[in-house]
Design a protein that fits this description.
By secondary structure, the protein is an alpha+beta fold. The protein has eleven helices and five strands. It has two domains: 121 residues, no CATH class; 118 residues, no CATH class. It is 45% helix and 9% strand. The protein has a five-stranded antiparallel β-sheet, with helices on one face. A hairpin with a 2-residue loop joins strand 3 and strand 4. About 5% of the residues have low confidence. This is Site-specific DNA-cytosine methylase.
């Protein structure tokens, strides 16, 4: 059966098969032939005032960690957390989501940064821009910190050095000043702070050596264990019997201590942790016994 013819008329092209376009329509109707005009935009140079503003804002960004460390130090020293929290550590955890280590690293970094400012004019010298660049220097003396930073900047080609570069320079200085470690496990030492920010509050404390390392010792102090460089230690040269007595006192204090204790109780334990003799007086013995009795339910097994 023949297919009926379609009633729809076949559409015909409105454009001639000749590819030549009429005059005046070539550029208007054919995008391929259109001309695009781009206007050059001149970027104005910064004015002197804008340059000063930029430098000022850059410095604020670079010193953000420094300002945080200074603020945390003031919050702790003035105990501005006392209306809501028992301890500074609990306050930092709840308010800033900081671990104890994180808060103290920032505070230690602020101390080192202050020290570098004394040596390095911020207008002429590169200064640290993060806590990680400062962290390796916290165990050094102030003059050594300044030496390390200037050397690290030089090695970085006059730019801000990475934490790795700083750490390598610190290691070289520590090896340069290497001294034999003659301490023994169980020996009783005194901690010498010597302006080391990591030892804030530990100067004068007695401690018992629990591990002997190459350039340091791990020690048991009244509020826990710390690893401290040999330059910050001095032996009491106690006799074996005196060492045993101090070990018993250390065990008793450490069983009572916890981060949740009231500040007055911590202060009392700290004072016992700074006695410079191998025994407690009668009053000190009574006070420690009272604390042991009061916190007997909290004593760690």
């Amino acid at each position: 059966m023949a297919k009926p013819p379609s009633s729809r008329k076949k559409a015909t092209s409105a454009v001639s098969s000749d590819s030549t376009l009429p005059d005046g329509l070539a550029e208007e109707e054919n995008p391929a032939l259109a001309t695009i005009n781009v206007t050059a935009v001149e970027v104005p140079e910064l004015t002197e005032e804008e340059q000063r503003d930029r430098l000022h804002l850059e410095r604020r960004v670079e010193r953000a960690f420094f300002e945080a460390g200074k603020a945390l130090t003031e919050l702790r020293d003035r105990r501005l957390y006392r209306s809501t929290h028992k301890t500074f550590e609990e306050y930092c955890r709840d308010r800033f989501a900081h671990s104890r280590r994180q808060s103290y690293l920032l505070m230690d970094a602020a101390v080192v940064f202050d020290n570098l400012l004394e040596k390095c004019d911020p207008m002429d010298h590169i200064l640290p821009t993060s806590e990680r660049q400062i962290r390796p220097m916290t165990k050094l003396e102030p003059q050594e910190q300044q030496e390390v930073w200037l050397t690290a900047v030089e090695l970085a080609g006059g730019k801000v050095p990475t934490g790795r570069i700083v750490k390598d320079v610190v290691q070289r200085i520590m090896e340069r000043t290497q001294v034999p470690n003659t301490y023994q496990i169980g020996e009783v030492c005194q901690i010498l702070a010597k302006d080391n920010p990591e030892l804030r509050g530990k100067g004068g404390c007695w401690a018992i050596v629990s591990a002997v390392n190459e350039f340091s010792c791990t020690l048991r102090v009244w509020d826990g264990e710390y690893t401290i460089g040999l330059q910050h230690l001095k032996s009491f040269n106690y006799l074996p019997q005196e060492r045993e007595q101090m070990q018993l006192i250390s065990d008793r204090i450490n069983r009572v201590y916890s981060d949740s204790l009231e500040e007055t109780v911590k202060s009392l334990l700290q004072s016992l942790g700074k006695v410079n003799r191998p025994y407690l007086t009668a009053v000190e013995e009574k006070l420690l016994s009272v604390l042991e009795s009061e916190y007997s339910n909290e004593i760690k097994v």
